[in-house]
């Protein structure tokens, strides 16, 4: 999940100093959006050349608006200070939407040059706003009287967040510390950009090309076709290309019988950012860690991890570590069992080998078939991207009363021909927002899957509906042919749609607390929860239909999926949790002026943890974009596990009630989780939904480390 920017405080803190006059006409990318649905981005008028001018003018407007608030001679009130900040930065927000889309999905050298120029400037002005003493004094005045000024609960929460964010960003530091903090933030912005661009280059320019039919042994036809399409798009018609992205690599590692090629593809993938060349990220990571450590000290915290977790649900690194360590040991024990099962299969088939990381998925698939009579390739003919998308819409309507209707191409501008758009309304026909879907991989697009908000829902100055997007990296098929995806990809599809629903269900007044603008270790809860609706009977029977015959997925195949739901859970948990532990330990160990060698630290930390040699971290350190392309998930990759503790407990609430389609429970879920944004403390919001705090037992049951609870109702 990649968060949209918060319009008020966060957007205020990403502006950049500019000498452009506030009265200067707005470039098209910063101008108010026109057209239907409350206005839409002018993607048809966007270009790399227009990004910097739009950002510059938008930033100038932002600067003037915030300074006017600071200079207001009237006593500070919520309306003339906090609400005024919510109104600020609209031009910049519009420009930043397009800037972010180009950086994530249409990146080329022209776009990257703009990023290299703008990112340090953005960091510099972030600090100028943080260090605006007059502005902070007004915010502090509202903060000090928030409980007695007749503010609503949402207004009090917004005031607290605005004040707290500024303090955490250094608003109370002395002049010398503020100067050094600004230098650190500018340096970090440049390093984050270099890290991201290096990783994007290794994912785009490095790939494995196959030239003979013999290289395709074991691969299903649909996978071969996708690799051929990718090769053709790169000017290599008649060949096959395994792109250096997860959605391309993992299916190859699962099905290819060519062990030599599995190793080659695996090494290319896990070596991203770690090849000792001009795009190697290790030195950059070392600098980032030092600067983060120094910044944390300036801000009064012993480490970057302590600073980052201060305003999360976990609160402290110690609490996050306690959860991870509680899960780590049973997960590693399960891996030992999985490896033993795979080795027995390899031995029985006469494969004289010791299992290596490039073998894990291949032999795990054999074990799955032997233990559960389930070949995951049996599922793929029933997993059509378009049909599963309709299944997600069904879940949205049944749970939250949201109806999706496709827009005719050309109704609103899009930034690439692959993007399609749906209008979203409630059951009464009231418009709620737009959903943009960009499903396919292409050169210049970041790997993985994510959600963004182009515009947040708000209503304090009138109703403003949201615009959200989901982005994936599926391999595009031949024209007219359905795109068939794996079960894991289907789970990810539902996960990211959960983030989109979090934005679409938002029902608040102020944009800074709208939608997904919640604590990092809470934001994954709604998305992880939505994954649970994929394997329900209603979805599989109606939307998992064979791409040729239209027949629904057989009941016996569904039963196999249910029986095998905890299969390979040791691998999945250890692969993820190793990265979360290394992330936290890196940021607890980093000290100002002390250089850490990321490769050595990763290797030594995993050895000390007892990392099984047959597995590598899901994201090795030199390619860990969550952690080193920005501060977002830094010292926070544990968040997925923390959120999954809530997810598992919440799903058991449905099990204990009337099942997945319990309308009353779904109403409570919407009222207390999906619709409230950050207007309430997440602990209070969850407690209002569930009636109590979560425990760890549901998580352990979900992952198969404890006996299961009662089976879910249909």
Short précis:
With 714 residues, this protein is of the alpha+beta class.
Structure in words:
It is a single chain. Helix content is 54%, strand content 6%. The protein has 28 helices and seven strands. The strands form two sheets. It has a five-stranded mixed beta sheet, sandwiched between helices. The protein has a two-stranded antiparallel ribbon with strand order 1-2. The chain is globular, with a radius of gyration of 25 Å. It starts with 8 loop residues before the first helix and ends in a 12-residue tail after the last helix. 52% of the residues are buried.
Entry keywords:
714 residues, alpha+beta, 5-stranded mixed sheet, two-stranded antiparallel ribbon, 28 helices, 7 strands
Largest sheet: 5 strands, mixed
**End-to-end separation:** 30 Å
**How much β-strand is present in the residues?**
5-15%
Ranges where pLDDT stays below 50 over 5 or more residues in a row are 2-21
Structural class: alpha+beta
Proportion of helical residues: 40-55%
Strand order of the largest sheet: 3-4-5-7-6
- Mass-distribution shape: globular
Work out the helix count. Answer: 28
Q: What is the mean pLDDT? A: 93
Radius of gyration: 25 Å
Number of strands: 7
């Amino acid at each position: 999940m990649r968060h949209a920017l918060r319009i008020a405080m966060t957007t205020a803190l990403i502006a950049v100093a500019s000498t452009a006059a506030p009265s200067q006409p707005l470039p098209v990318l910063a101008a108010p959006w026109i057209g239907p649905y409350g206005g839409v981005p002018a993607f048809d008028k966007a270009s790399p050349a227009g990004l910097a001018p739009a950002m510059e003018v938008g930033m100038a407007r932002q600067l003037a608006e915030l300074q006017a608030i600071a200079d207001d001679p009237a006593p500070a009130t919520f309306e003339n200070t906090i609400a005024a900040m919510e109104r600020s930065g609209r031009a910049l927000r519009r420009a930043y939407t397009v800037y972010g889309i180009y950086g994530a999905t249409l990146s080329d050298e022209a776009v990257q040059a703009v990023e290299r120029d703008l990112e340090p400037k953005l960091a510099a002005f972030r600090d100028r706003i943080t260090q605006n003493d007059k502005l902070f004094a007004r915010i502090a005045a509202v903060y000090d009287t928030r409980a007695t000024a007749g503010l609503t609960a949402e207004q009090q929460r917004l005031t607290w967040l605005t004040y707290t964010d500024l303090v955490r960003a250094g608003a109370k530091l002395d002049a010398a510390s503020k100067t050094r903090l600004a230098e650190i933030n500018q340096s970090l912005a440049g390093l984050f950009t270099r890290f991201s661009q290096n990783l994007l280059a290794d994912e785009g320019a490095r790939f494995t090309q196959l030239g003979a039919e013999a290289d395709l042994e074991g691969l299903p036809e649909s996978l071969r076709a996708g690799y051929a399409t990718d090769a053709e798009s790169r000017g290599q018609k008649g060949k096959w290309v395994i792109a250096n992205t997860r959605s391309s690599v993992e299916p190859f590692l699962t099905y290819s019988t060519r062990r030599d090629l599995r190793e080659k593809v695996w090494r290319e993938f896990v070596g991203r950012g770690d090849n000792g060349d001009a795009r190697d990220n290790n030195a950059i990571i070392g600098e980032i860690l030092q600067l983060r450590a120094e910044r944390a000290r300036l801000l009064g915290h012993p480490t970057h991890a302590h600073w980052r977790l201060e305003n999360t649900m976990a609160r402290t690194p110690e609490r996050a570590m306690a959860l991870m360590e509680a899960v780590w040991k049973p997960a590693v024990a399960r891996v030992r069992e999985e490896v033993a099962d795979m080795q027995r299969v390899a031995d029985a088939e006469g494969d004289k080998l010791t299992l290596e990381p490039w073998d894990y998925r291949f032999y795990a698939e054999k074990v799955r078939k032997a233990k559960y009579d389930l070949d995951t390739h049996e599922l793929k003919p029933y997993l059509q991207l378009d049909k599963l998308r309709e299944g997600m819409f069904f879940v949205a309507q049944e749970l939250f009363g949201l109806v999706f209707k496709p827009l005719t191409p050309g109704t609103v501008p899009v930034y690439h021909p692959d993007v399609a758009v749906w209008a979203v309304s409630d059951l009464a026909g009231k418009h709620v927002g737009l959903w943009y879907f960009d499903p396919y991989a292409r050169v210049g697009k970041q790997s993985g899957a994510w959600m963004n908000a182009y515009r947040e829902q708000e209503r304090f100055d009138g109703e403003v509906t949201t615009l959200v997007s989901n982005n994936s990296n599926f391999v595009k098929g031949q024209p007219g042919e359905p795109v068939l995806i794996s079960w894991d990809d289907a789970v990810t599809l539902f996960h990211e749609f959960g983030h989109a629903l979090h934005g679409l269900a938002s029902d608040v007044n102020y944009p800074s607390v709208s939608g997904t603008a919640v604590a990092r270790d809470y934001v994954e809860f709604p998305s992880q929860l939505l994954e649970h609706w994929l394997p329900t009977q209603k979805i599989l029977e109606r939307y998992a239909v064979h791409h040729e015959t239209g027949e629904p997925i057989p009941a016996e195949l569904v039963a196999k999926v249910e029986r095998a739901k905890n299969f390979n859970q040791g691998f999945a948990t250890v692969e993820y949790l190793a990265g979360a532990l290394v992330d936290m330990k890196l940021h607890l160990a980093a000290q100002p002026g002390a250089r850490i060698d990321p490769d050595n630290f990763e290797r030594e930390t995993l050895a000390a943890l007892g990392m099984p040699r047959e597995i590598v971290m899901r994201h090795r350190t030199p390619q860990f974009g969550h952690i080193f392309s920005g501060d977002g998930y830094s010292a926070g990759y544990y968040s997925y596990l923390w959120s999954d503790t809530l997810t598992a407990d919440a799903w058991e609430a449905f099990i204990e009630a009337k099942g997945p389609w319990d309308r009353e429970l779904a109403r409570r879920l919407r009222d207390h989780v999906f619709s409230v944004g950050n207007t309430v403390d997440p602990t209070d919001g969850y407690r209002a939904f569930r009636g109590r705090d979560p425990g760890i037992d549901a998580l352990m049951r979900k992952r198969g480390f404890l006996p299961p609870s009662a089976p879910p109702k249909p």
